[in-house]
Amino acid sequence: MPHSKSTEQTDYASVWQESVPGVAWGTIALAIGIALGYWLIISSVLQGQLSYFIATPLCAIFTYASFTVMHEAGHGSIVKMGSSLKPLESCLGWLSSIPMILGPYQYFTFLHAQHHAFTNDPDRDPDYFPPQTRWYQVIANIFLLPGQYAKTAATKFRHHKGLQDSYFSSAVYTVLMIGSLVGLTIAGYGTQVLYLAIVPALINSTFIYLFFDYIPHHPHKSRDRYKDTRIFPSKLLNLLLLGQNYHLIHHMFPRLPWYKYQEVYEKILPDLDKNGAPIEDISNGLRPKFMSSPNTSNLSHGGKSVNMLLKVANITRLTRDAVKVSFALPKGERLDYKAGQYITVSKWLGNEQQTRCYSLCATPNKGVLEVGVRHTPNGLVSGFINQDLKVGDELIVKGPFGDFVYPCVSHLQTKNLVLIAGGSGITPVLSILETALAENTLNKKHIHLLYACRNLPSIMFYDTIQSLAAAHKAKLTVDYILEDNPHNIDVTGRLDQATLESLLPLLTDKTDNYSAKSTTEFYICGPEGMKNSVVSSLEVNNVPPSHIHIEEFITTFTKPIGELHTLNLALLGGVQHQLNVASNQNLLEVAKANKISLPHGCSNGTCGSCKLRVKHGKVKTIPNSKPGITAQEQANGYTLACQCYPLTDATVTSI
Questions:
Q1: 72 and 78 in contact (C-beta within 8 Å)?
Q2: pLDDT tens digits, residue range 95-135?
Q3: Does residue 556 fall inside a structural domain?
Q4: How many domains does the chain have?
Q5: Residues 60 and 202 in one domain
Q6: Phi, psi of 391 (to 5 degrees)
Q7: Which phi and psi angles does 606 have, rounded to 5°?
Q8: What whole-number distance in Å separates Cα of residue 225 and Cα of residue 305?
Q9: Of 126, 258, 360, 414, which is least packed with CB atoms within 10 Å of its CB?
């Protein structure tokens, strides 16, 4: 396939912008053609020149085409930002929504943006349905789609300003539509209403569900940008489906007009193949057959990362308030992670999406994905996992993450390993422990585990640790430090400096200028207070910082670094806010931290629903790989709240 540049030279992240027109005249021409088509069909039917047998399917085709125009308008793909023709886009959006009957343009635009922001998220994607394989289940979902949209809006996004802003226009539209249909029926045009409006709208719903929801996204597992939907290339289907056979291209670059999908697909095909995009042949070819690509539900980057729905395979009770959860990986695959790393688990709870970090407790060579979760006081997610989660449930899993890994790359000649855990901090430490013991056949290192808990019944993985201690008596020492220890088992008290030095004689061995300790690595994971105490004790004993490894989960809020810039935020309705934002922080996260509601969706620059305008000041240039905004729009002063990093004091306004 011809390319203007070689694979090495092509900037695939920005090539899509070359295909974004200032005005999508192809879409405008389609809208004009639809209007003329409807006029010809309706006038021909009224004059008795066209039968309903022919008119109804023709209207269904034009209804599908109308949806394409509304869909394009909703993405802002018809007219570029700042153009004097921009109002035409909204006008086309509303007019093209009429054949949908009960599909208010502004309401649809908001909810469809959530589909793009949260594709294949069972809790937040309004187009998500549990994957079905039987034809009657698929058909049943077609008729449930409007209810699914309404349910998602009413339960997940009811407090979202973008949805609330659509209420008035949606109510007016609905009243006008129902009133018009009832009025036409009373006036004697009931048959025409049925066969030229209602039946075509129902047929159109079938096509929309099949070619925008079910076929592209089935089996609705992957949330990877390159794999959350599929492509089945065909020039004929490109014409018949108005580009939706290239649905992945639309998801990757939602600002592209529909007639540019194939063009961009051909330009970035090497990049799609490199990243495992599910591309399928509808006829004989070298690629997987239609609806059969494994890339819609497998791990990413050759098994090095996961970002998908995973089913819970097993739940094991560890203590009264802790469980081990095992996830089922795609058949024949294993996640490539390092001992000590963690994954994130996401679930809609308490009226918002909750994401938590949980360390992987199994060794990487076991090929299983397991986490240990203790129910923390008032812990929403940990409480759900401990009390309500069932085998067979699915959760969004992403990872692996973290630099708390073994072996430490910078110190490969470790002779001694000291693992210090507190409470549920044992989870990554257990993975490190088992990994180190498995390597110990060739390397004579000694491992010392110090595990601080409230009492004996609260020890997580107690049986596993005891089995390891029994199997590796010469190489592994285990000490439990228990605050509540009525039977004087192991050590009673807290893990302070005195306890640490009494259990680790090497700390007080000052011979040979620390040479005896220079090959000892310390891995620490537990409550913040315990970690700080242990680190202070190690520093007092002159342990080099490079030999101290501490588990630190990534925080959701970026702490400001450097100068704070004053950012004046002017929203619709005259609402004004003033925020202090550092150059390493984006506007959206600071606004959220200050309880300020801004329209947004994906929070990663993909959906473009948080677009704002910079009136004064400077902000960082958004990379061309972010499809929510074009380079031309940035040049015209637009930005995305989730990507807006100020360089000076600035004024930013709603558009």
A1: yes
A2: 999 999 988 999 999 999 999 999 999 999 999 987 776 88
A3: no
A4: 4
A5: yes
A6: -60, 135
A7: -95, -50
A8: 13
A9: 414
